[in-house]
Amino acid sequence: MTATVGVDVGGTYIKAVRRDPEGQVERRVQVPTPRSPREMIDTIEQIARSVGPGAPVGVGLAGLVDSRRGVLVWAPHLSGEEVEVVAPLRDRLGVPVVADNDANLAAIAEHRQGAAVGAASLVMITLGTGIGMGTIIDGELYHGQAHAGEVGHFILQPNGLPCECGRRGCWETTVSGRRLDADARSVLGPAATASDLVAAARSGNPKARECLDEAAHWLAQGIETVVLTLDPAMVVVGGAAAQAGELLLGPVRDRLERTEGAAHRTSTTVAAGILGPEAGAIGAAIRASEESGRGMEGGR
Fold it and tell me: How far apart are CA 176 and CA 62, in angstroms?
């Protein structure tokens, strides 16, 4: 093994880590996400040179990523379409580079060294600016044709809030880090965040608790749909908003206990991720290590 760099490009922040040959995070960086594709590539390059010069790089992106071509096809929270990511970074840095959807890489992180080590099948739900999902079956990511896992855009409320994808009532408009930040501001004031909302709910603030109960309802409804579709051994919920713990996950378990045929199904374990908001960056670094070992070809 060699040291690797993992970069997670979210709708709000870019998070990056350097992972040492023993798998430990030894450096970390967080900067605001630039608005243009060119600035985004420039920023990733600068971070990689600073955090791990000469190390293979993995990049996670919050959107539709063609991992074979190394291209960000489109994203609701990032600018640009058909943005080449792997080729320019590989040319500039002179190291192997791999790119994938950020939730896919968070799933890799939790499966390899997080809450889901040893799970035969895993669904990772990430609550960040939006909602992402990564699926692992028999140890390997499931991509479908290229873009499996865009569950944040399940429509749960046909006449609901507008989503940045251009439609209304998507799952991520009902529960996500962004939605909880908005709820926090409405309840606690303009500077409040999801963390403040969770703390207030735990301290007994009835309006904050009402917001968390509503979020838990929608989280449970979406996860039930995923479980009925894929029947995974484990569901891990990660991302910044997952800090709410049992305030969100308890209702999910309760709903799954009452789902279709629950008494006749092998139950799905539901747990919070243990790698926190860095899971996507850690997974990107792990993917860079795994793909370097296999020999990156084409877009990888």
Answer: 13
Please give the span between the terminal C-alpha atoms of the chain, in angstroms, as a whole number.
Answer: 18
Burial label, 225 (beta-carbon count in 10 A; 0-12, 13-18, 19+):
middle
Starting at the edge strand found earlier in the chain, the sheet holding 140-141 runs 140-141, 131-137, 121-127, 234-238, 269-272
Beta strands in the chain (DSSP E): 4-9, 13-19, 25-32, 57-61, 64-66, 71-74, 83-84, 97-101, 121-127, 131-137, 140-141, 234-238, 269-272
Q: CATH 3.30.420.40: which residues of the chain? A: 4-105+278-294, 118-274
Point out which residues pair with 237 in neighbouring strands: 125, 272
Q: Is the pTM of this model over 0.85?
A: yes
Kindly state which CATH superfamily the domain 4-105+278-294 is placed in.
ATPase, nucleotide binding domain (3.30.420.40)
Question: Three-class SS of residue 155?
Answer: strand
Residue 296 pLDDT: 55
**CATH class for the domain made up of 118-274:** alpha beta
Pairing of strands 121-127, 97-101: unpaired
252 and 219 in contact (C-beta within 8 Å)? yes
Cα separation, 215 vs 211, in Å, equals: 6
296 phi, psi to nearest 5 deg: -75, 135
In the chain, the largest separation of any two C-alpha atoms, in whole Å, equals 56
Q: What is the pLDDT of residues 227-279, one digit of tens each?
A: 999 999 999 999 866 789 999 999 999 999 999 999 999 999 999 999 999 99
Instruction: Give me the pLDDT at residue 298, please.
Output: 40
Task: Report the distance separating Cα 95 and Cα 86, nearest Å.
Answer: 10
Strand residues in 167-284 grouped as ranges (E): 234-238, 269-272
Q: How confident is the model at residue 1 (pLDDT cuts 50, 70, 90)?
A: confident
Beta bridge partner(s), residue 126: 132, 238
